[in-house]
Amino acid sequence: MTQDTRILYNANCPVCSFEIDHYAAWAKAQNLPLRFEDLNTCDAAPYGVTQDQAARRLYVLHKGEVYGGVDGFIVLWQQMPRTRWLARVVGLPGIRQAASAGYDHIVAPLIYRWHLRRQARQRASRP
């Protein structure tokens, strides 16, 4: 873990920020080489995605490779001693596919639609 692992997430999303803020606080307390980057205030280009794509799911940049969705969570969890067990379990054949399907087809789209509604409300409330 000598190289920073960078995590791109939507800090404006209550669900995303709740989970990632928890990881970020623990990583900071443990002095782990993890950088948590808000897609609303940073450049998503190093991840190879647009801002809109980044709003659709979690992305992790680790050792020059970009991982999205459940694969990104697995890489993140592998970097944190207390969640390595979770990475191993979710990474098991069958479980990984089921978790990916659930995240990609249910969880991430719901959170993204919530994100779009929040943005629309913010635009509508501006003078």
Automatic annotation (TrEMBL):
<protein>
    <recommendedName>
        <fullName>Thiol-disulfide oxidoreductase DCC</fullName>
    </recommendedName>
</protein>
<dbReference type="Pfam" id="PF04134">
    <property type="entry name" value="DCC1-like"/>
</dbReference>
<dbReference type="GO" id="GO:0015035">
    <property type="term" value="F:protein-disulfide reductase activity"/>
</dbReference>
<dbReference type="InterPro" id="IPR007263">
    <property type="entry name" value="DCC1-like"/>
</dbReference>
